[in-house]
Amino acid sequence: MEYLIIILSLLTLSIITLVFLVVWRDRRDLKLRRVTEEIGKMEELFCEMRQYKKEADDLLAAVKKQTEQAVSRVDHQAKQLRDSVANLEQRLRLSNKDPKDADRPKERQQKYSGKGKPRNFNKKGQTPHPPSNSDSDGKDVKRIDDGEKYAKMMELAKQGLSNQEIAKKLNLGQEEVELVLQIKKKNIS
Q: How much is the mean pLDDT over the chain?
């Protein structure tokens, strides 16, 4: 009987151990399932974050493009405004000319018109040539001041005329036209 009690106690201990192992294994499996579920949720969150990041990058690219377009439009409008202001200043200068200037010699006109120093014609005994109102063909040519002349050069250049054609139209030297256009293009850009 003693043996029977020992065997029964061993069986009881074995059953308790087995129950403990089964419970322990079930708890471990349950924890593993929970951890797996948490990892799955985290992966879903990561995917959502990547998607949000991609959408944010797309929005930033669109905003950057729109900003560049807006800046380009503003630059273009500013350039047009500068051109308009220059044109208006030139018109204002032309409209504010003193009618008495027509009677004065060219040297004095330049002095009062604000177009720089009057030219010195008295080098080595040269005398100033009176302004001619006709060209070699006998046509009357209207004298224009330097600012207006340069503005007309730029206008004709924008119309696509060559330097020779501009020089001929404005009764100027081709080198002068080339020089002025080069300077103006450097100042604009």
A: 79
